[in-house]
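> @MW can you paste both from yesterday?
MW: sure, first one:
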Amino acid sequence: MKNAVSANVRTRRARCLALGLATLTVIAIMTLGAAGHGTKALANDADQISSTARNTGSDGFSAAPAQKLVATSPRSGVRTGPAQKTMVSARRAAPASALAPAVDPALYSALEWRLIGPFRGGRVTAVDGIPADRLTYYFGATGGGVWKTDDGGLSWRPISDGFFKTGSVGAIAVAAADPNVVYVGMGEAPIRGNVSHGDGMYKSTDAGKTWTPIGLRDTRQISRVRVHPRDIDLVYVAALGHVYGPNEERGVFRSKDGGATWERVLYRNPRAGAIDLILDPTNPRVLYAAFWEAWRTPYSLNSGGPGSGLFKSTDGGDTWT
C-alpha cells in the first residue's frame, strides 16, 4: 500500500513538472511575439512534454537520482535535467509550420507573463533573438553584461565575462543573415541618476563565445544597434553620448565593414544624441532616427532642446531629412 501511494505521488509530481514546462514553452514563444502561434499548437506542445515525462519514468526522469535532476552554478544559473533537454530537442526539431496555425489573437488574452530569470542580471534594456530559432535569446543587463539562453529561458549563462571592460549594455543586434554574428553597444540609454556608461561596440562571430571590441569607445551611451537584414557587415549605431557633459562622438554611425571603420552619418550638436534608430526590414535603405538633447547633473535632468527631432533617410543613411 505504501509503495502504491509513493508511486502515485511521483506520478502526480511528474505531471506537475510537465505542465510547468509547457508553461515555460508558451513564454518562450511569446517572447518573440508569437503572432501566429495558436492554442492548438500550444496544446500539442504540452501533450508532447507530458508524453516525455510519462515515458521517462514515474518520477518524470529516466531513473536519475533526485540530486542530479537539477544542478546549479553561481555563474550560469539553473541547469536543466534530461527531461527538459529532451523537450528542448523535440521543440527545436519540430517544423515551424506545425507550431504556427492562424488563430484569433483575442485567444491570447488568457496567457500571462511569468518571470523566467536569471536573477543576477539586473535591469534590462537590450534584448534580441533569432527568428528561425525560437529557443535562443540574448539580453544585456544594465550592470551585468550579456546573457544567453538556448533553451527558451529554462537556463541562462553570462557570455561576456572576461571580454567586456564595462558592464552596462545598451543595445544588442543579432545579424539576420548569419545569427553567429552579434553586435553589442555598451552603456544604457535611459539616463537615470545612477546611470553607468559603456565603452563602445563589441562584436562576436561565434554566437557569443568570444568578443572583440570594434570602436566608438567615447560614445558612452548606445541606445540602438541595427544590422542590414542581408549584409552582416553593414551596421548602424545610435549613440546618445556623454550624460554629464558635451562630446562629439554621438549621433548615428555607420560601418560598411563589420565595425572595422565607422563614419558618422547624422549629427546635431554636442549635447544631442540619437536615442532610437529604426531600419525598415522590407527596404533597409529607409531608416528613422530619433534625437534627444539631454544631459544630467548630479541632482537634475535637462531634457529637450533644438537638437531634438525625428529624421528619415531613404538612401541607407547618406542623406537625412
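MW: second:
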Amino acid sequence: MLKAVLWDVDGTIAETERDGHRVAFNEAFEAHGIPWRWSAEHYGELLVVAGGRERLLHDMASRPDAPADSAAREALARTLHAAKNVAYAARLAQEGLRFAPACARCSRSVAPAACRWRSPRPLAAPTSTRSSRSTWALRGATGSPPSSAART
C-alpha cells in the first residue's frame, strides 16, 4: 500500500529547465544589455553543471566577452542569477508551464482510497530548488498542494 508519492520537480513534472529557467536566463541577459542567448541545445549542455549561478560562471569561462576578472564574473553571475529568479517567478505566476502529461495522468490515478494516509494526497517534492517552486509545480501538476516540499 502506498504511503506517499514523491515527485522530482525540474525536468520531471514540467520541462522547467528548457521552457522555464533557460528562457528566464535569456530575459535576464536582455534586461542587463548582455548579448548572450542560450539555445535549448546549449542550455542542455550546461545542465551538467549544478546550480544556476555556477552554470553562469561555467559559461562565462568560455566567453571572450565575459569579464576577465574572477570577482567581476562572480558579481555578474550573482546579478544575472537574481534577475533570472525574478523573471522565472514572474513567468510562473503569469503563464505557468505545461506539465508533463504522464505526470498529470499518474497523479490522478493515485487513488486516495488505495493509500494509507491522513491527508487526501500526501505529496512531497525532495528538491534542491526553492520550496515555493516545488509547491507551484506540484499544485499545477496534481491540482493539490503538496504535503511538503523538502529542500535537500
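> thanks! Strands lie at 5-6, 123-124.
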